[in-house]
Amino acid sequence: MAAVSQSGGSKVASPRKSLFDDRRILVLFLLAPVLCFFIVFNTIPTLWLLGLSFHNFSLTSGMPPEFIGFRNFVQIFYNKNNIWADLSRTFIFVGSAVSIQTALGILLGFLFWGSKNMPGRRIALTMLFTPMVLTPVATGTFWRFIYDPTFGVLNAILRGLGADHPIDFLGDPTFAYWAVVAVDCWMWTPFMTLMTLAALGSVPKAELEAAEVDRLPWWQRVRLVIWHHGKFIIMLGVLLRTIDSFKTLDLIIPMTKGGPGQQTRLVAVELNKQAFESFNMGFSSAYAVLLLLISIAMTSVFIYVLNLRRRKDSAAGGET
Amino acid sequence: MADIIIDHVTKRFGTFTAVDDLDIRFSDGDVTCLLGPSGCGKTTLMRMIAGLETPSSGRILFGERDVTQLPPRKRNIGMVFQYPVMYPTLSVAENIAQPLKHDRSLSRGERERRVEEVLDLLDMRKQARAFIDDLDAGSRQKVAVGRSVARQTDIVLFDEPTTNVEVNAKLQLIRTFKAVTQRLKQTIVYVTHDQTEAMTLADRIALMKDGSIVQYDAPRRLYNDPSTEFGGWFLGNPGMNFIAAERRGNQLHATILDSPLDVASDLGGGEIVLGIRPENVLMHSEPGPGSVEGRVTEQTIGIAGRNLARIAVGSAVIKVKADGPAPVAADGTVQLSFPRDRILVFRNGARVTL
Q1: B27 and B64 in contact (C-beta within 8 Å)?
Q2: Which of A213, A227, A228, A310 is most worth mutating to test chain B (most B CB atoms within 10 A of its CB)?
Q3: Is this model's pTM higher than 0.80 or not?
Q4: Which of A81, A239, B92, B248 is the most buried (most CB within 10 A)?
């Protein structure tokens, strides 16, 4: 209706003035449901969280929230379990898990891409993607069983191979951290495979054929043809994985609960503990606000980098 | 020597036969156009020559060398695709140099010399440093041509290279192709569905239909002496006129003939059709020897300012292409004559000589 009146046909179409003749009102009306949802479930809780982070409020004390300014934030840094150790552990976790997932995912993606006529390819692909659709809590739970020192299948295999002592993968400080990283990779490598397949699918067939006819070596094909078309999808995959693994919690809780010691205590695990085990709502809110800021910072860097590349390409007149 | 020998090649996709038992030789140094309507198998044939498809049966040879099972990179060919394929992050000169870079037999100096030579040939010296993204489709396709010929392979394949280029750039591009193909003595196979392009570029045209080559001839001959009704219909703008004829004894009768046409007695049975090109039909205002009367149904100005008229003669409608307009307006009557030496006779779709 708006389009009709805009194009000057209102005389013919509808002589009555409608509220929606104003385009801005129409747009607002159409956006309203989503906006309401967003405000109720996103904006208000975030503001609530922000407010709470300046209060001393414990669910167990029964006292009303007390305004204490920045004291929660100060405490995060001057606590004996200060945030730095958790943060660096988390960054190493994100860095190692995401790079392993990306490398393996790209490798698998290329393998599946290059084996289009392989029998059973579809079944193999479906099986490959199952870890990704499982609930992380379930994944963590059954991996705890796999890693179990007495009746776990992994130790059974090691025994079969001649190991003397069972290894407590999740209880031993030498292994726990990497055992958790391994499970995260098991779960999320398929996602990067999927992204790689999507990226490879976006490469025009003729360009690959031309590279073949031109006798370009494989690394030149990857650099000049595949990477050029696929980079945004791959980078998007890395971005999504980075943000997501920064928040890893549900995989770790059933496996180690952050232990042994603090070996696998990532920021989200600590946050969960402060909020839902110690009920320090004020302190945990401050902690959450800090994590939110870090997440925003990381995302901004990624988006900046992606945009920068895109701008460079379009400055050169590209259609990417 | 790099004749391209297609030895009883068939290609099936599922139950569809794209190329049907083709057996032909494209000579060394020739520009051969594969011409035909969509789906006639011309692109499939070219992709098999390139090695991008494998024949279901039969062999492909380059001279003595059997290449049927070789991948494209081992066939030593150049190819220009329908969609201008570029390496987007590189400059024009770098694009042209790219396939040369990986040929260890070439010295650095030789590589540079060849790139220069190709840039001159394409008249693109000024744009050598420009990035591919700055070029229009026509120029990109020129660069793609440069890249394919710079390696100086024995064989260069063109897969409908002007399809994605706008009309003005198209003519210029075809001129460039012509210059390039005349300079380089490479064996060239050029796929197109555009007859003007084929006529301009080809030494020989392979006219294709339903996976087979209908006729393989020089452009002029293909146009003047089509071996099939299909050839007469497909070439020319508009295509040939076809008029049903009736055989009585050793004579053919048709509405366009004022007196019967004598034919050999061993012509055989079947459907007889007379064909004549629109430009060979003569139009007069007054009756003359051998002329028949017709009624003008439509007049238009056609290609290159020539006049196109549709004239009803009995139950047949004859297309006439003439330098001037018909002497009368629509619905008027005119006299048409059909020079006997220009009339071709087809029996069951195939040409018969009298």
Answers
A1: no
A2: A213
A3: no
A4: B92
